[in-house]
Amino acid sequence: MTTPQPPRDTPFAPACDRNREPILEVLRAQFEHRRQVLEIGSGTGQHAVHFAAAMPWLRWQTSERPAHLSGIAAWLDEAALPNTPSPVALDVAQADWPVSTAADGRFDAAFTANTLHIMGWPDVEACFAGLHTALADSATCVVYGPFNVGGAYTSDSNRDFDGWLKARDPRSGIRDLEAVDALASGIGLRLQDDIAMPSNNRCLVWRR
Ligand SMILES: C[S@@+](CC[C@H](N)C(=O)[O-])C[C@H]1O[C@@H](n2cnc3c(N)ncnc32)[C@H](O)[C@@H]1O
After folding, report:
1. What is the per-residue pLDDT across 189-203, written as a single tens digit (0 to 9) for each?
2. What's residue 11's pLDDT?
3. How many whole angstroms separate alpha carbon 46 and alpha carbon 11?
4. Assigned domain for 12 exists
């Protein structure tokens, strides 16, 4: 499979090139019977074009805070895939989520990568509150990123990364898996899988 190359002068995240294949392996299985994915915090849009190209049965809806939308649109335009509608503005803290962009008003899947440790905790709470209305019954939600387990870092590199994050923005930081799972549980999502990923990351998979 050939993934579209970055359009000139558009944002590029080297990490996406490194983590996209291991994540795709998880998503292929978890989204096999899904139809409409809402991606939160799509970043550059690189993941979206890679995953939408590899899983053509999905309609992959990118979303981001407004400043990122033009970069995502450039990636989507270059790829010209039939299953990537235009990106929508979504700050998870906003009251009204763009659920009307789903064909039947709700998404049956959600995906987000490397966002929960960037958001402040109130935004992480807002993210799950928004998913409560954005997700259909029986939806699948996959979150990729670093997590602490049992109140502890899972690696020295994650401890260092957490220190770096907090020095940059004290509201950010690696989240406790159990605290995030409690938010998910509060909106009817049950943890199905906790998959170890390269570089001390995880894919958490919930189902409604
Ligand atoms: C480290 S980047 C990850 C981007 C992309 N998902 C990836 O894996 O390359 C974190 C992203 O989270 C987004 N983000 C942070 N706070 C957000 C919020 N309140 N609502 C929506 N997105 C947010 C940022 O705009 C940024 O693009």
Report:
1. 999 999 999 999 999
2. 77
3. 9
4. no
41 Cα–ligand 1 center, Å = 4
Q: Which residues are registered as beta bridge partners of 147? A: 175
CATH number at residue 76: 3.40.50.150
- Residue owning the nearest CA to atom 21 of ligand 1: 91
Query: Which structural domain, as residue segments, surrounds residue 113?
Result: 22-207
Residue among 151, 126, 144 at smallest CA distance from 205: 144
Better-scored residue on pLDDT, 9 or 170? 170
Ligand 1: distance of its center to the CA of 149 in Å?
22
Who's near 187: CB < 8 A, 6+ residues apart?
Answer: 128, 129, 131, 132, 135, 208
For residue range 76-113, what is the model confidence (pLDDT) as tens digits?
Answer: 999 999 999 999 999 999 999 988 888 878 999 999 99
Tally of domains within the chain = 1
- Residue 136 forms part of a structural domain: yes
Query: pLDDT tens for residues 50-82?
Result: 999 999 999 999 999 999 999 999 999 999 999
